[in-house]
Design a protein that fits this description.
4 helices; mainly alpha; single chain
Length: about 55
């Protein structure tokens, strides 16, 4: 995507259209979350309810 913009001089809108990608996908920036509490709770539940086989 960036290659189309830099080498061919296309705008973000035009390059997304060429590739067939929604602009919202191109502009998405993931947000870091602190899942430590959730992970710890899942580990506790998994150790309580062990299943074998």
């Amino acid at each position: 995507m960036e290659q189309l913009q830099t080498e061919m001089g296309l705008s973000e809108r035009r390059s997304c259209r060429v590739v067939g990608l929604a602009r919202s996908v191109q502009q998405y920036r993931p947000v870091d979350r602190d899942d430590a509490a959730v992970r710890e709770r899942l580990r506790a539940l998994a150790s309580e309810n062990r299943r074998y086989g």
